[in-house]
């Protein structure tokens, strides 16, 4: 059912047709990009569930063929992500293998990952954020090292990705936020750590976990509004001044007073 929505929105990006949706744009932009790179021309109408794709090259968005695996590829990444997260937390190989097997044979995970949906993209960034957070915690004994900066920054990137696909990504932002507060509180109680060094820790987290995700989230919308420059079904949700910038709109290039 949802392929009729998100597949259609991927076509909108390929055709640069403006639309409005309740979710942030990253997931649909990535679906459109996967379709474009795998040869889909954005002409399938996506009118109702169950319509045959016929000659339309849709497989790149779903992700079955090697040259265009996208949703299925991101869904398959959940298995190593879960394995590495549990291995890092428990230091137990059997526990990590059991976790990976549970995901490999999970019917819901397999089903969600084989269609043109936002769910595998969202889960990829959610689990990526948790893995990055856990890896960063494991580098706590060598702060400001290259690996510490890498995992801290990657956590911020994954947070932006999660919230950029669906607003439910706020829950992993909350999880990372609570972990960061706990970490900073622990550092503040360390009497061998100077206030200057604590300030550096605080600044590093502000930069990587607040400033970086906000910058990336804003950049997603900048790309969204730059790509979608043609009139479409989303025009009516925006002001006349905005509609005057859309090619093909009745108000295109019309002077609209404030």
N- and C-termini, Cα separation: 42 Å
Please identify the oligomeric state: single chain
The major sheet is characterized as: none
User: What's the mean pLDDT score?
Assistant: 89
Shape descriptor reads flat
Task: Quote the beta fraction.
Answer: under 5%
| Rg on CA atoms, Å | 22 Å
What is the tally of beta strands?
0
> Approximately how much helix is present in the residues?
55-70%
Counting structural domains, the number is 1
- Structural class of the helix and strand makeup? mainly alpha
Element-by-element helix/strand order: HHHHHHHHHHHH
Tally of contiguous helical segments: 12
Low-confidence runs of at least 5 consecutive residues: 64-68
General description of the model:
With 258 residues, the protein is mainly α. The protein is built from twelve helices and no strands. The chain starts with a helix and ends in a 15-residue tail after the last helix. Residues 64-68 have low confidence and may be disordered. GO terms for molecular function: mannosyltransferase activity. One of its GO terms (cellular component) is membrane. Belongs to the glycosyltransferase 39 family.
Which key features would you list for this structure?
flat, mainly alpha, transferase, single chain, 258 residues, mannosyltransferase activity, membrane, PMT-like, transmembrane
């Amino acid at each position: 059912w949802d392929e009729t929505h998100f597949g259609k929105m991927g076509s909108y990006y390929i055709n640069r047709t403006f639309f409005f949706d309740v979710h942030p744009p990253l997931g649909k932009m990535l679906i459109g990009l996967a379709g474009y790179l795998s040869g889909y021309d954005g002409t399938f109408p996506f009118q109702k569930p169950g319509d045959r794709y016929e000659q339309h090259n849709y497989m790149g968005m779903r992700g079955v063929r090697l040259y265009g695996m996208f949703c299925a590829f991101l869904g398959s990444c959940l298995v190593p992500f879960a394995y590495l997260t549990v291995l890092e937390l428990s230091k137990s190989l059997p526990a990590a293998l059991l976790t990976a097997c549970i995901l490999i044979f999970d019917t819901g995970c397999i089903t969600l990952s084989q269609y043109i949906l936002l769910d595998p993209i969202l889960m990829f960034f959610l689990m990526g954020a948790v893995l990055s957070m856990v890896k960063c915690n494991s580098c706590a004994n060598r702060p400001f090292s290259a690996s510490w900066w890498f995992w801290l920054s990657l956590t911020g990137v994954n947070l932006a990705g999660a919230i950029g696909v669906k607003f439910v990504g706020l829950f992993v932002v909350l999880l990372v936020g609570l972990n960061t507060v706990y970490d900073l509180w622990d550092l503040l109680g360390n009497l061998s750590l100077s206030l200057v060094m604590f300030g550096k820790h605080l600044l590093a987290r502000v930069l990587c976990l607040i400033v970086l995700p906000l910058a990336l989230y804003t950049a997603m919308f900048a790309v969204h509004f730059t790509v979608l420059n043609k009139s479409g079904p989303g025009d009516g949700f925006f002001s006349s001044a905005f509609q005057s910038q859309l090619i093909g709109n009745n108000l295109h290039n019309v002077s609209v007073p404030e």
